[in-house]
Automatic annotation (TrEMBL):
Domain Methyltransferase small: from-to ranges: 34-127
GO biological process: methylation
Organism per entry: Pukyongiella litopenaei
Keywords associated with the record: Methyltransferase, S-adenosyl-L-methionine, Transferase
Protein name: Methyltransferase
Source taxonomy: Bacteria, Pseudomonadati, Pseudomonadota, Alphaproteobacteria, Rhodobacterales
S-adenosyl-L-methionine found in the keyword field: yes
PANTHER family recorded: TRNA1(VAL) (ADENINE(37)-N6)-METHYLTRANSFERASE
Amino acid sequence: MTGDADLTRNAFLGGRFHLWQPRRGYRAGVDPLLLAASVPARAGQSVLELGCGAGAASLALAARVPGLELTGVELQHRYAGLARRNAAENGVELAVTEADLGALPPDLRQLRFDHVIANPPYFVAGAHSPARDGGRRVALGGETPLGDWIAVAARRLAPRGLLHMIQRAERLPEMLAGCAGRLGSVEILPLCARQGDAPGLVILRARKDGRGQFRMHAAVAMHDAGAGLPQGKDYTARIAAVLRDGAPIGWPG
């Protein structure tokens, strides 16, 4: 790992945890916090994060729900090391495995989890402007199809376990196709910039052995329309509670 001069240490959830992350590489934003806020985990349950990066989503979930058994999988050596460091410095037990999703080690393939969470790259490799930093390039543009992410998640879920995944709205058809025959009781929570805007992101929830009907919920607005506040200060009360207080996002019903 490079020296700390190449890193920044940033506070999340109003200082509930801090994250070392590359100064110029891929940096966690609000998306892993929204993902963590969507998971109805309870103390004592097990959670696997696929593509954990520096650990933002897992640590956000741990800040809200103490007593979880957390495991992360990360392809990139530098980010896997950062995830271990961040977990240790925040007093969170997070077992991080450095591996490709398609080649998980045998010991991990023997485990089943109550929850699997994932924030896969938003673009197919080559379908976006290339980033100069290699870590950011891998994080933004993935070689692994979304269907493969979902297939791996389905195999690692315990019976009745839940997958939560955040992704760009235009890739929803790929996500639904990946769930077909593997996961059921699919629900979609769209996220839009402001009320009335088309959703830019979606959070998918799907259950192992689920038999419930598909549900598309009303979009959640991130920002108050016409608030006249600087960017980052105009979050709706619901989203501000997630990002600053570590509150759950709250699924309808």
